[in-house]
Design a protein that fits this description.
Blueprint (H helix, E strand, L loop, with lengths): L25 H16 L4 E3 L9 E4 L7 E12 L2 E5 L7 E7 L2 E7 L5 E7 L1 H13 L13 E2 L11
Antiparallel strand pairs: 1-2, 2-3, 3-6, 4-5, 5-8, 6-7
């Protein structure tokens, strides 16, 4: 397993539409492991394959609820409610913006074994699913932000968020 380079805004790969996964190969399974490692190393809660330069419909999510997710060929099939909140992105480091998203989503996908799964998410999980699936279609949260993005200072080790 390896830490991969996270592509940042300006890299053309982030604006391209990803291709579906037709079969799980050893290489794609390794990619999924690397994506989890890369996401955790960067202190993220989600990562999409194009963010590491691979144009496949794969995302990993871990909102620290004890249920890390790998979604292959994910599709949101239901949404309800609305939430508005700050979002950041590993591909837009040091920036945040206010984004409106559904408060509840139902997502159908395949797991890493290519078995069908349905994920229901509320709050942060719903936001993460929407954010990561946008990446698969070349959409960045900047495109959906209510107003301009603003710079944020990274927290220093040991510093607590207020």
């Amino acid at each position: 397993m390896a830490i991969r380079n996270i592509r940042v805004e300006g890299d053309d790969v982030l604006r391209k539409k990803c291709k579906p996964v037709m079969e799980m190969t050893h290489r794609l399974s390794e990619l999924i492991d690397d994506m989890f490692d890369t996401m955790y190393e960067a202190n993220g809660v989600g990562l999409a394959a194009p963010q590491v330069g691979v144009l496949r419909r794969i995302v990993v999510i871990d909102v620290m609820d004890g249920n890390p997710l790998c979604l292959v060929n994910p599709e949101i099939v239901e949404t309800s409610g609305e939430q508005r909140g700050l979002e950041g992105c590993l591909s837009l480091p040091g920036l945040e913006g206010e984004v409106s998203r559904p408060d509840h989503v139902v997502c159908k996908a395949l797991d890493r074994n290519m078995q069908p799964i349905t994920v229901k998410g509320d709050g942060l999980l719903a936001r993460c699913i929407c954010h990561e699936l946008d990446h698969l279609d070349g959409v960045l949260y900047r495109d959906k932000a209510d107003g301009d993005l603003f710079k944020v200072e990274p927290m220093v080790d040991g510093e607590k968020e207020e």
